[in-house]
């Protein structure tokens, strides 16, 4: 496939220098769970208002190439009737869509899950293209078994099942006119046995199997973006590692497994704190200079939204302050995607943006 194909052009734009992808594709349940601790009403209107706050942030197109939407969100509009798709396009940001339907237990594989949503996917892709989507996302979950739990996971069955589903999804998207984001997430919620060495081992095996399946199904690598997790110890592990060590392990596993033809890599934050995710991305890009054949950027959800959500708190009067928080995190992650992040900038207060207002 020519690198100048329409999908290749979209994929290249998704990982343009200094730009990342905002993951705003939380399901209804996940969005409500994030609202609940703040006392925000868990209604469709509040979810819509929150997304309007995010998508109308002045200057959003300076740091974001795209936004991943949920099915509910891609059909919604601002209070004034302008659709979210039109709003993003006007800001120079490409709309994307989450097309998987969540995970279920994988039959005959205790402790492992499989992502569902392949049934009817070609028709849904066609509908999303008509709605204005330019790319899609599918998340596979790879779990590392906890201490003493048998069988040891991930198993070959679990890896192959999820990799094959990712490849089928990617092929369907490309055939239907969407750039696929391929997201094999190795979860970091394991116990003390999940060291950075074990995480590295599972990441390497996972990515090898994923790219074997992508090749088997004829997926064009220049027309896709990889969204991997970083190589981190489990959250309950007592092992202490620096962001530089995480960056080094992450880059090494990618250099071993990801073909140069892939359009780009946009990391998920994987539960890291905001500043930690930004700093680690920066370290990865500093190490990658002159070594990595692909752009390395961000596709964060909570690590971009958490401060903005807290500042907004369901109150229209707080829109400008919340947008300032989102803009700050976007700007800092943009710098990290170029290897130019300075942690001293974290201390600077968010600045209310021209054009922002408390509606």
Q: How do the strands and helices of this protein lay out in sequence?
A:
Blueprint: H1 6-14, E1 20-23, H2 28-35, H3 44-55, H4 60-63, E2 64-69, H5 71-74, H6 84-90, E3 94-98, E4 103-105, E5 113-115, H7 121-131, E6 135-142, H8 156-176, E7 179-186, H9 196-216, E8 225-226, H10 243-257, E9 264-267, H11 274-288, E10 296-298, H12 302-312, H13 319-337
Parallel strand pairs: 1-2, 2-3, 3-6, 6-7, 7-8, 8-9, 9-10
Antiparallel strand pairs: 4-5
Please tell me about this protein's structure:
This protein has a single domain (6-347), classed as TIM Barrel, CATH 3.20.20.70. It has 13 helices and ten strands. Helices cover 44% and strands 13% of the residues. Strand 8, helix 10 and strand 9 form a beta-alpha-beta unit. The model has no long low-confidence stretch (mean pLDDT 94).
Distance between the termini: 47 Å
| Main sheet: strands, sense, barrel | 8 strands, parallel
Spatial strand sequence of the major β-sheet: 1-2-3-6-7-8-9-10
Number of helices: 13
Key terms for this structure?
two-stranded antiparallel sheet; 359 residues; alpha/beta; globular
In short:
This protein is α/β, with parallel strands linked by helices.
């Amino acid at each position: 496939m020519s690198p100048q194909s329409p999908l290749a052009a979209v994929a290249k734009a998704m990982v343009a220098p200094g730009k990342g992808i905002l993951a705003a594709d939380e399901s209804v349940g996940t969005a409500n769970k994030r609202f609940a601790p703040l006392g925000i009403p868990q209604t469709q209107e509040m979810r819509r208002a929150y997304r309007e706050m995010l998508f109308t942030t002045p200057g959003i197109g300076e740091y974001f190439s795209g936004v991943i939407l949920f099915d509910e969100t891609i059909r919604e509009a601002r209070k004034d009737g302008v659709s979210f798709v039109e709003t993003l396009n006007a800001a120079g940001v490409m709309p994307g869509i989450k097309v998987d339907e969540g995970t279920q237990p994988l039959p005959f594989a205790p402790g492992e899950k499989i992502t569902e949503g392949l049934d009817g996917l070609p028709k849904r892709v066609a509908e999303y293209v008509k709605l204005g989507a330019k790319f899609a996302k599918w998340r596979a979950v790879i779990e590392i078994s906890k201490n003493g739990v048998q069988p040891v996971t991930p198993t070959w069955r679990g890896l192959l099942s999820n990799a094959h589903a990712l490849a089928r999804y990617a092929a369907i998207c490309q055939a239907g006119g969407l750039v696929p984001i391929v997201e094999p997430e190795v979860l970091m919620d394991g116990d003390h046995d999940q060291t950075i060495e074990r995480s590295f081992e599972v990441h390497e095996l996972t990515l090898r199997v994923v790219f074997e399946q992508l090749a088997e199904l004829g997926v064009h690598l220049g027309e896709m973006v990889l969204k991997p997790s970083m190589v981190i110890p489990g959250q309950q592990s007592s092992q202490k590692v620096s962001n530089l060590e995480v960056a080094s392990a992450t880059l090494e596993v990618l250099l071993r497994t990801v073909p140069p033809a892939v359009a780009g890599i946009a990391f998920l934050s994987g539960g890291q704190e905001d500043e930690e995710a930004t700093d680690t991305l920066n370290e990865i890009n500093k190490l990658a200079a002159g070594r990595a054949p692909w752009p390395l950027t961000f596709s964060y959800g909570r690590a971009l939204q958490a401060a903005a959500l807290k500042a907004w708190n369901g109150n229209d009067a707080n829109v400008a302050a919340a947008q300032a928080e989102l803009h700050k995190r976007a700007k800092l992650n943009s710098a990290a995607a170029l290897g130019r992040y300075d942690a001293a900038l974290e201390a600077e207060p968010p600045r209310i943006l021209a054009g922002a207002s408390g509606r």
